[in-house]
Specification:
It contains three helices and three strands, in the order ααββαβ. With 122 residues, it is α+β, with helices and mostly antiparallel strands.
C-alpha cells in the first residue's frame, strides 16, 4: 500500500510541478511589455483552461476517494481521461462507478475514459 501511495503522490506532485512551470511561463507572457494583446489573451485563455482541468481532476479524485478508491490519479488531456486506481483489478460495478464519476466531473463520455488498475507489487 505504501508503494502505491507513493506512486500516486509522486504522479500528482510531478503533475503539479509541470503545471506550476507552465503557469509561470504563461504569467511571463501575460506580464510582458513586448508581446501583443492577442498573445496575452491566448496565454490567459490557456491559464484558464489549465485551472479548469486541474479543478476537474481534483474533483474527480476527491469523489472517487469518497467512494473508496484510494490513491487514484486522474489525468485529463486532449478530451481523454486516464484513471489509475490502486487495485490490481476492478469489477464491472466498480468500472461503472468510476465512469459515472468521471463523466459527471469532466463532461466526457465513457468511451473517452481509460481506467488502468495498478498492478500490486508482490
Amino acid at each position: 500500500e505504501t508503494a502505491s501511495y507513493s506512486f500516486a503522490a509522486e504522479v500528482k506532485l510531478n503533475r503539479d510541478q509541470t503545471r506550476n512551470k507552465n503557469t509561470e511561463s504563461l504569467l511571463q507572457i501575460i506580464n510582458s511589455e513586448v508581446v501583443s494583446e492577442a498573445q496575452k489573451q491566448a496565454a490567459i485563455d490557456q491559464m484558464l483552461e489549465l485551472t479548469d482541468i486541474s479543478e476537474r481532476e481534483t474533483g474527480a479524485e476527491t469523489l472517487l476517494a469518497a467512494k473508496g478508491f484510494e490513491d487514484v490519479v486522474v489525468s485529463i488531456s486532449d478530451m481523454k481521461v486516464d484513471v489509475v486506481i490502486n487495485q490490481s483489478e476492478i469489477s464491472d460495478v466498480q468500472r461503472a462507478q468510476i465512469e459515472d464519476v468521471i463523466t459527471r466531473k469532466t463532461g466526457l463520455p465513457p468511451e473517452n475514459i481509460v481506467i488502468t488498475p495498478m498492478i500490486a507489487a508482490e
